[in-house]
Specification:
This protein is α/β, with parallel strands linked by helices and about 300 residues long. The protein contains 13 helices and five strands. The termini are far apart.
Length: about 300
């Protein structure tokens, strides 16, 4: 029995479990459908890993496949932040790490579930959030997957997955959405908002980024950043002003890379990518670090 869902943002986008609008990724869905329909001839691979950038519809596709396979008759087990628990079994949705206790609780439920002969589905959203102990617990399960059980693993960064887990999966790499596909989703889910082409380009094929950009004012901040970089009269005070607007929103730090790409400064890309990563990794003071990055971009123009 599938657990309750919750809405996913202040824009009230449907939870992937409820979202029947899969835009894009028909190639991967068709590949699964073909494998599913031929499962009596060629055994279905028990582990499907859906990987790609956040916000492109990986979880939506996973739930669509899951509902078709377990068909509200078999068992459906979900591991995600909404169901994360601590060692005492208490809810702990911290948004960062999925505990081994969550995985063990799911395994216990699987062992107690009725073996009616119907297919069972285990959906993990996302594998990136499993801590080391949780990843190892999943690995043990995948080493000898139970019969008639399908594992759907949502992965944002393939590099974050244990190689031993990855080697046991059929990896399906999902592409970012096109501008036209993003527009189609905007018309359906946020018809009252005017989303510019520049904003859609900033999303880099991720519909999930649109709400972040609109909530934080990221589209307007990016436009201001581009005007400032293009203005020869820009002062250090101007640069610090825009740095202060970008700094509080980690999801906006990537617009610096968008600026680098827009101005064709390919040589700067690796350096700035590392500097942005270090803001969080080394706990740098965000305003100062972003000020330095913008100044480096400015010097190259």
């Amino acid at each position: 029995m599938a657990p309750k869902k919750k809405q996913s943002s202040e824009y009230n986008f449907p939870h992937p479990m409820d979202n029947e609008s899969l835009i894009g990724h028909k190639d991967i869905l068709n590949r699964f459908m073909d494998a599913w329909e031929k499962r009596d001839v060629h055994p279905l691979h028990p582990v499907w890993m859906l990987t790609g950038p956040m916000g492109i519809g990986k979880a939506t596709l996973a739930y669509k496949i899951a509902k078709m396979v377990y068909g509200n008759v078999g068992d459906f087990f979900i591991i995600d932040q909404d169901r994360n628990i601590d060692k005492d079994g208490k809810p702990k949705p911290d948004g960062k790490v999925i505990s081994v206790y969550t995985v063990r609780a799911m395994i216990d439920k699987m062992q107690m579930s009725s073996m009616s002969g119907d297919w069972r589905v285990v959906l993990i959203d996302s594998v990136d959030q499993l801590n080391t102990a949780a990843s190892n617990a999943i690995l043990k399960l995948l080493e000898e997957p139970p019969a008639k059980t399908l594992f759907l693993l949502v992965v944002h960064q393939l590099a974050n997955v244990l190689p031993t887990v990855r080697s046991r999966a059929r990896v399906e790499k999902m592409r970012p959405l096109t501008i036209s596909q993003l527009r189609e989703l905007c018309v359906k889910f946020i018809p009252d908002d005017e989303i510019s082409t520049d904003t859609l380009k900033l999303c880099n094929g991720s519909f999930g980024k649109i709400a972040n950009l609109k909530t934080s004012g990221g589209d307007a901040i990016y436009a201001e950043l581009m005007r400032m970089l293009d203005d020869k009269r820009t002062t250090s005070a101007d640069v610090m002003g825009i740095a202060k607007k970008i700094a509080p929103f980690p999801e906006l730090h990537g617009i610096l890379l968008d600026a680098v790409a827009t101005f064709g400064l390919a040589d700067l890309y690796p350096k700035i990518t590392l500097e942005i990563a270090n803001i969080k990794k080394v706990n740098l003071e965000a305003e100062t670090a972003i000020f330095k990055i913008i100044m480096d971009i400015k010097k190259c123009l």
